[in-house]
Amino acid sequence: MIEGLIGFAAMGILMMLRLPIAISMAVVGFVGVGLLRSWPAAISTTATEIIGISSYSLSVIPLFVLMGNFITRAGMSRDLYQAAYSLIGHRRGGLSMSTVVACAGFGAICGSSIATVATMARVAMPEMKRFNYDPAFAAGSICAGSTLGILIPPSVILVIYGIMTEQSIGALFAAGLIPGIIATLFYLGACVFVTRRQPGAGPAGERIDWPGRMRALRHIWGVLLLFGIVMGGMYGGLFTPTEAAGVGAMGGFLFALARRTLSVAVIRDILMESARTTAMLFTILIGAMMFSNFLNFTSLPSDLRDLVTYFDVAPLIVVVAICLVYVILGMAMESLSMMLLTVPIFYPLIVQLGLDPIWFGVIVVCVIEISLITPPIGLNIFVLSNEVPDVPTPMIWRGVLPFIAADILRMGVLIAFPAITLFLPVLLDL
Amino acid sequence: MNRTTDALGLVPAVALFAIMLLTFSDVVGRKLFGHSITGSVELTELLQVIMVFAILPATSLLGGHVVFDLLDRVLLERLQRIVYRLSNGATGLVFAAAAWAVSLRAERTLEYGDMTSQYGITLWPFHYMIAIALLLTALAHGYLAVTGRRITLAPR
Amino acid sequence: ETVLTVSRWVPAGHLMSHAMLDWCGKVKDATSGRVSCEMLPKGVAPPAQTFDAVRDGLADMSFGVHGYTPGRYTLTGLAELPFLGETATATSVAYQRIYEKHLAKFDEHRGLKVITVFTHGPGVIFNTQKPIATVADMQGLKFRTGGGTINRISNALGANVTLKPATESYELLSSGVMDGVFFPNESVRTFKLEKLIKYATTFPGGLYNTSFAFVMNADTWKGIPEQDQKIIDGLSGEAAARLFGGYWDKGDSESAELQHEVGIELTRADEAFVAEVKDLTKDIETDWIERAGKAGLENPAAVLAEFRADIAKLSD
Ligand code: NA
Ligand code: NA
């Protein structure tokens, strides 16, 4: 147990010294394996994990990233926002609610929360300013809404969880859908709650007549089509999740092409940006695998298990405790690295306790969503404050609070009723 | 800077586009013509290696790795710059060590004669390519450490 | 006192995990506890890199599949040919004998102490669409293979094959992306395919097989005192081949029972079908003979004949 804890401490120090998180994990993994096994073994595991990046099943990651980038370029976020606005914009808090709904729709074709927050900020923020929204409330709804994309399939984070734990990606995606819809409803509830307590925070927008609504809705057929093809094809026996990513990327490409948003230079930019994101993700994955190989030689996972067995703790308590650890870690850590670091420790425990690994994956993603918007380190908050420099960061922190409350409420529901999460995977026999 | 990164990015961009086309045609071929593309899995794997490692030096040069930079905000600017240079130097050394570890494996791949299963493509050139890419990545970090520069792409 | 670190890339409940632990238990008893094993919670490397990982000392022991690294092993290919034997025990024991007698000296396992080589049970065709009783029945069906000799066999039979990881089998079959797989009986149960598969076709001796080795790091072996080395040697080779083969056979029969229970329709390939397959796959055998000859093996055809004869003798 002690070696494992020393490893964690060493990694924390390296990270504080501004070494990339991937490098910090790799260094600790390397030295740990070197000391616990031998140096040739450490060199071997380094080469194996680096070359292991070629693995076919990982190709799902660059392809879903690429799909999201094509879609972002095609300007889908604006259309989604306008469609949502035309339906609910005239209500009190309607612009925030439109933002949340548009984010959810965008999340259905994009797996990354960063892309969502950046584009939605450009689309929704000016509108909310025009209607004199409370900037904190406006920023909060963009920040929180953007996290929906990593739970609603397709989701890069769920893919990485699936690869780490060898769980079916199809089952994980199916499991993410209903909790994603619940999350959207809870966020809408948060919007209603805020505007009820403070009506000035979100004045009503213009009412759009039905012909206008139909016009706005007509523009979002592409999103529905693409989501339909990717999910329908995956569960209808046309292709595997990995292949779905390729089909989705191709669909995004054709869609952006049809909208005349692509030139050769733009295509090259999108491809290079997606490749860079992939290289960054894969470097973290290599580091995490090396760190997890080190943990494999320590007694940390088994000691943790013995501890739980010894104190005879109820599985539910263990899950709640794990979630608390995540929320605390999530305040200070970047989300993907946090998941990659902790899954090798918590996952065996979950399996040991007889809990469902698919359900746990969704729970982990939900907690990661929270970590994206909790101060002081919340990726979405950072991205948003870059996009809207005139809104001070502490104001964004205040704005996300009601949404964090909605998140915690949703976590409670999902933990108490695993059947909600597992309904679709069971229905689809995955 | 854009011109340099464009040149560096051409190979990985083409590789990623090829992966997309390959996966898509594989599905279409299987569904419409009853035959998938022979060896699409191993071709994807090789293209993926090319994509990831060809873009890695540029990723590092552009500061693309996730760094815990919360302390940056509280450090004095002078100290911040020193930490930036030192951490890039250390990261460069780690990448150089990784290059060496992979080159050892590449040597063995050559000795074993490992190849892909469908087309029998020999693997050692790819493993040496990874080692070289890691070395270039190490040099990119070395450059950042020596010059102290922070490079961002100019918006187009 | 030596504690051997054992790595596995299959789940904890897999028969290979049990087989390795069983072997370890025998070693521990025979050495009065001087040599024992510790199973790592998870594998130290992906399946294809396992031999390298043991060679580099990442783990002291593990088992691997020769076919996962094409181009590296030539001679072991004889244990992957069609129509070898009805039980894993017979093919494993005969394989280990022929390996010791003719193949070991070529040192294809550099840096490794080979405890034993072995095979699984006879390879079967499983599919979700229709009974397969002739080569023509296979046309138009989409099969997943994991590469290696079975890939060549299925290509020769004109099947539409795609190489995908074995762990994706369930997803591929349940979604209808693929219609069938080639596996030993045992794997239907391991990958929980019994609800998806409707038809099975078995061949006398199996349509294909897979060559495995259970290995130890060479330096670890040198570090074990001579008296214990002798004891371990007594539990290795044929004894270990029998043990591993036995576990595969047990897995096969349990899975066959399950398949019967859930009503999977079983077809036993008749003579005409076997002759058809033999004809279409004879190149694969001559190809092995040629490559083994190039690798330095004297009279590979005779070695193969000896191997087949020994399997037949052991099967009686
Ligand atoms: Na998504
Ligand atoms: Na956070």
From TrEMBL, chain A:
InterPro entries: DctM (IPR010656), TRAP_DctM (IPR004681). Residues 9-420 form the TRAP C4-dicarboxylate transport system permease DctM subunit domain. One of its GO terms (cellular component) is plasma membrane. The keyword Endoplasmic reticulum does not apply. Part of the tripartite ATP-independent periplasmic (TRAP) transport system. PANTHER family: C4-DICARBOXYLATE TRAP TRANSPORTER LARGE PERMEASE PROTEIN DCTM, SIALIC ACID TRAP TRANSPORTER PERMEASE PROTEIN SIAT-RELATED. This is TRAP transporter large permease protein. The gene is siaT_24.
Automatic annotation (TrEMBL), chain B:
The keyword Cell inner membrane applies. Pfam families: DctQ (PF04290). Its main location: membrane. The chain crosses the membrane at residues 7-29, 49-71, 83-106, 126-146. Keywords: Cell inner membrane, Cell membrane, Membrane, Transmembrane, Transmembrane helix, Transport. It is found in: Cell inner membrane. GO terms for molecular function: transmembrane transporter activity. One of its GO terms (cellular component) is plasma membrane. It is a multi-pass membrane protein. InterPro entries: DctQ, TRAP_DctQ. Residues 19-142 form the Tripartite ATP-independent periplasmic transporters DctQ component domain. The keyword Chaperone does not apply. One of its GO terms (biological process) is C4-dicarboxylate transport. The complex comprises the extracytoplasmic solute receptor protein and the two transmembrane proteins. Part of the tripartite ATP-independent periplasmic (TRAP) transport system. Belongs to the TRAP transporter small permease family. This is TRAP transporter small permease protein. It comes from Oceanibacterium hippocampi.
